[in-house]
């Protein structure tokens, strides 16, 4: 199987940065743990590229989104 590439949209990455920044106001430890968790779960798309759902507004079966925690 060919190696997949995870491509983040600008909006998704900025949202992640904002969430991490918000969490870090209370705890840098939990902010970094959250960031690591998101990155680890995103990397699972390399092994399971059909994990998650097709992004409805994109209408492209190769574009997926996964939900992590309540964010």
TrEMBL record:
<keyword id="KW-0614">Plasmid</keyword>
<dbReference type="InterPro" id="IPR035093">
    <property type="entry name" value="RelE/ParE_toxin_dom_sf"/>
</dbReference>
<dbReference type="Pfam" id="PF05016">
    <property type="entry name" value="ParE_toxin"/>
</dbReference>
<protein>
    <submittedName>
        <fullName>Type II toxin-antitoxin system RelE/ParE family toxin</fullName>
    </submittedName>
</protein>
<dbReference type="InterPro" id="IPR007712">
    <property type="entry name" value="RelE/ParE_toxin"/>
</dbReference>
<keyword id="KW-1277">Toxin-antitoxin system</keyword>
């Amino acid at each position: 199987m060919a190696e997949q590439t995870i491509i983040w949209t600008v909006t998704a990455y900025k949202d992640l940065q904002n969430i991490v920044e918000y969490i870090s106001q209370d705890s840098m430890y939990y902010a970094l743990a959250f960031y690591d968790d998101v990155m680890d779960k995103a990397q699972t798309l390399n092994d399971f590229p059909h994990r998650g759902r097709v992004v409805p507004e994109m209408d492209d079966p190769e574009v997926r989104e996964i939900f992590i925690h309540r964010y």
